[in-house]
Inverse folding.
């Protein structure tokens, strides 16, 4: 699920952090910039693994920050295609099922990748898997574990830069939502037009399948109703 | 910003859990505050990994398992276990034949049910079980002693 990504960047250390040891100040700034953010084509950055090289500190005119060139490795969440992961159901829409891992919530199962016999139940607004052993409701409220296989990872350039993460005492879920939409680009275009409160497509989306044997709802530790081999 | 290597190394869940816990421990010891967003993310990752099947697995056990599974011969003329399958096994800790079928491509053709059962036994022996499984095994042992 996780890979190490080696990177090089110029990290500005604000003047207020200069009293701290250099490596600590640098690692704090790196984590502040990259944690919970998506790097296009790479994945969701989790935390700093190690700092390999610390360059000299450069000071530019009319800028109190000290800019340090750093070579470091980040732990990045990027599941490989074919990986089998356990998550919990986040929400159901007629378009498909969304699964969450807690720190990452943009895992999508389209209807054609669900078990045969899955239907959208209008009354309960849920996906239901109908089999000869009974019906199983894929209900987010239960938070029951679901095993899925990754079929694809999609990176989308976000059209507008996201809002900055909110203040320290804000709701933790908000920080996560805001952080995930951020896309790091060299030249961020200037914002034009009105700000609209629309739900953006996620910058990093994982497409998954719960169709095959051994996948789907995991009940009581045994994948109870999923495959004919068990029964 | 320049990405030097997109995939310097692939980490298994056990390694990430150990790393993230040690980061947390160091941060609390040193007293220096990490950025809020980093703390939140690492807490969520710890929460996810600790509720997964491989929460008690250590990197040493994974190394040991890789060593043992590498020696596992497939049926004649078939491919041995691929890297992604090894990683899947280490992360997932399969305990049933069904789980192995979902992890290993063409499992029955490449290994046959007997060797797959042996693989499961090996996984259960080497990788430490998550808490609910351990307590179930304890209960079973107590029942056997009582009867």
């Amino acid at each position: 699920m996780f890979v190490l990504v080696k990177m090089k960047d110029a990290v500005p250390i604000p003047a207020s952090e200069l009293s701290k040891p250099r490596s600590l100040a640098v690692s704090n700034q790196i984590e502040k910039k990259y944690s919970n953010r998506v790097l296009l084509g790479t994945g969701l950055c989790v935390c700093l693994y190690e700092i390999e090289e610390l360059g000299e500190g450069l000071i530019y005119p009319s800028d109190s920050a000290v800019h340090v060139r750093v070579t470091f490795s980040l732990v990045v969440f990027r599941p490989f295609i074919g990986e089998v992961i356990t998550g919990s159901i986040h929400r159901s829409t007629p378009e498909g099922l969304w699964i969450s891992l807690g720190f990452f919530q943009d895992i999508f199962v389209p209807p054609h990748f669900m078990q045969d016999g899955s239907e959208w139940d209008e009354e309960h607004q849920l996906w239901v898997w109908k089999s000869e052993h009974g019906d199983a409701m894929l209900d987010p409220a239960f938070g029951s574990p679901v095993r899925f296989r990754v079929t694809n990872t999609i990176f989308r350039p976000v059209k507008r830069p996201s809002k900055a993460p909110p203040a320290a005492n804000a709701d933790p879920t908000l920080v996560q939502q805001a952080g995930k939409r951020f896309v790091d680009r060299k030249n961020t275009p200037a914002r034009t037009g009105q700000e609209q409160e629309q739900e953006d497509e996620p910058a990093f989306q994982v497409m998954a399948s719960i169709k095959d044997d051994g996948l789907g709802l995991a009940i009581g530790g045994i994948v109870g109703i999923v495959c004919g081999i068990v029964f | 910003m320049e990405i030097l290597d997109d995939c310097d190394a692939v980490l298994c869940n056990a390694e990430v859990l150990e790393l993230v816990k040690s980061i947390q421990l160091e941060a609390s010891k040193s007293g220096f505050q990490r950025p809020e967003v980093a703390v939140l993310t690492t807490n969520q990752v710890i929460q996810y990994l600790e509720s997964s099947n491989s929460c008690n697995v250590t990197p040493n056990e994974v190394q040991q398992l890789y060593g043992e599974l590498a020696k596992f011969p497939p049926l004649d003329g078939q491919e041995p276990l691929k890297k992604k399958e090894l990683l899947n096994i280490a992360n997932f800790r399969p305990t049933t034949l069904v789980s192995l079928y979902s992890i290993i491509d063409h499992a029955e053709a490449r290994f046959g049910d007997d060797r797959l059962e042996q693989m499961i036994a090996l996984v259960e022996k080497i990788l430490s079980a998550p808490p609910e499984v351990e307590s179930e095994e304890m209960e079973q042992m107590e029942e056997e002693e009582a009867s």
Residues 32 and 134 of chain B are 37 Å apart (CA to CA). Chain B has two domains: 13-51, 59-126. The first helix of chain B runs from residue 13 to 30. The mean pLDDT of chain B is 84.
